[in-house]
Amino acid sequence: MTCSIAFYAVANDAYVPTAVMALRSFQRWHPEFAYFLLGTINTFSPQSHELIRRYGIELIDVDEAGRFITQGTNKDRYPVEVFYPLKAPELLAERGYDYSIEVDGDVFGPEPFDIPRLKSLFKRTRGYAARPVGSLARTLMHKRQELNEEFDFSPKTVSATLGLTRRKIWRRYEAQAGIIYWNNTAMAKIGLFEKCVEIFRKCHGCFEADQDLLAFATAIHDIPVRKIGHPYNFGFFEDSPWVDHRMERRFGRGEFAGVYALHFVFAKPWAELEQPTPVKIHFVNAWRDFVCQELGADAGRYFREVQPIGVIEETLSQVTG
Question: Looking at residue 152, which CATH number applies to its domain?
Fold first, then answer.
C-alpha cells in the first residue's frame, strides 16, 4: 500500500529560519518525503526566499489574516500564521499527500523515524495522532482564567454557543500541537479548517493559537484522535500528564536514542538555557551542532546562541553551586 507523506511548517518572515531548520532536521534523514512551508509569500524577504530554496522546500501561499483577528487577553500575542497549521492538511490532500507531519519551528528531528512504524501509525490514524496535554475540562479552566470580556468560556456559554456537552468536556483532550501526525484525506472530508474558522468566529476570536482552537474543533465534531507516546513528541515531560519512566531511566544512563521528534516547548535551543539538565543540554547541543553544520558562518546571523553549552558535569556543578 502506498503512503505519501509530507512534512510542513508555517512562518512569517521573522520565523522562516527556525521553520526551515525544523524541516531540514527531518529532511536530512528522510529526503524521500516532501517538505512545505506555509505563509504569505509576498511578505517574505529575498533572504528568506533564498534560504527556503536552498533546501528545496516548497512554498504554499496562505493569507487568512482577515479571518483570524484575535481578541481578548491574547489579542495580537502571536502572528496570524499560528493558525495556518489547521489549513495545511487539506491543502496537502489536494496535492496528493495522504498524510502529513506538522512541526513547529522549535521542533527538532534528532534521529530518523522507524519508517515501518511511522507508516503503521498513519494507517491506524483516522483523524490525527498527537500527544495529549490534558482534558478539555482543563483547557476550559485555563480559558476562563483569561477573563475575556468577549467570550467567557463558562460551561453555560460553551454549551449554548458551541454545543459542548459535559460528557465531551470531560472525555475529550487537548493535544500538544507542536507536532501532529495528520490523516490529510480525513481532514479534507471533515473540512477541518472551515470548522475551526467558524468556532473562532463564534468565540469572538478569543484564542491564543491553533492548539486550543483545535481542541474545541476536535471535541465538537468528534474528530478521532490517536494518542502517541513521547518518542513521537518529546517535550522533556514538561507539558505532559504522564512520564515515560522507561525513557527516563535510559536518559539517566546517558542513553538518548529513541526520540524521533523533539519539541523545545519551554527551553528554546537558540536562547540561553536557564534551567539546564543533562537531557536538555544533550538535545540543545545536538540542535546547535546541526544548525552550525547546515548554516556554517551564517548560523550566528540567524540565531543568538549557537555555541555548545560545554561539558554537562561542569555546567550542572555551576548551576547547583
Answer: 3.90.550.10
